[in-house]
């Protein structure tokens, strides 16, 4: 009887702590977007209408695993401000977007959801920018909605199956009943304990911006429903990529692939180089000394890529070489880049 009471008390404390911290995280990072019905559920997005000074086509930004719209808005909002209509999306089940049905358990369903959102907002065609997991969704978008794809920018994108797997806790959190219990008891406190080091690892060997934990709001994914959506996506990813990768050869949109040669999260050879071979006319830009976050570390290269896709003169390789010089000058003394790992999705 005593053991049962202790277990019940422990569960109550765990559930109570998660509920309290979830409210605290949401108060710290309130919704900055607008919810739009996309067919039975609502997607959240920050939509910045076309400014009078625009000289670029509309741009849609798709965040990666464990992210939300704030991540890409912090990286690119100011950079492209005044130059384009911009749409920063919370993918289904992330940030403040509702998850929708099981079709959103793969990038295909999420790409379709973004296409419907664009239609609701009056965006006919756009340059689609996807980072990491968002790159798989961007590629799916280009395959399934070529008429809406003015160009494609893939940033450290995960695109092909790999020899390996995601961490065990993602598979556990994705389970129907045990996963729901797990995410309401353990993942939030555990995530808060490691979020600082985990986000530093994502940026490595480049320094994480000091304001990233505030500006990018990665803590939002630690909320139970968000964490479970993320876990389902990651658990399904490798199998999904094995089925769909042959479709990439059908992409007709002008494509730029940007990656760092020190990315220990997504393999340059497995993903970016292979994509450059599969998509006719694609340009591959490999930036020396950059890890998994070229969106933050080499935003000038991304800007040049969008300009080129918009028909403006831009030498992406020269821009990348200039970025390398700048990045080398910003590197902390004594920091060596870790060797690239032969995997496509790691921590977090």
Describe the structure.
There is one protein chain. The protein has 348 residues and is α/β, with parallel strands linked by helices. An 8-stranded mixed β-sheet has the order 1-2-4-3-5-6-7-8, sandwiched between helices. It is globular and about 75 Å long. The protein has helices spanning 2-28, 69-76, 107-121, 133-144, 168-173, 178-185, 187-203, 212-215, 224-244, 268-278, 294-297, 299-309, 316-330, and strands spanning 34-37, 42-48, 59-62, 86-89, 126-131, 149-155, 255-260, 283-287. Strand 1 (34-37) and strand 2 form a beta hairpin. The longest helix has 27 residues, at 2-28. The chain has 13 helices and 8 strands. The protein has a single domain (2-330), classed as Rossmann fold (3-Layer(aba) Sandwich), CATH 3.40.50.
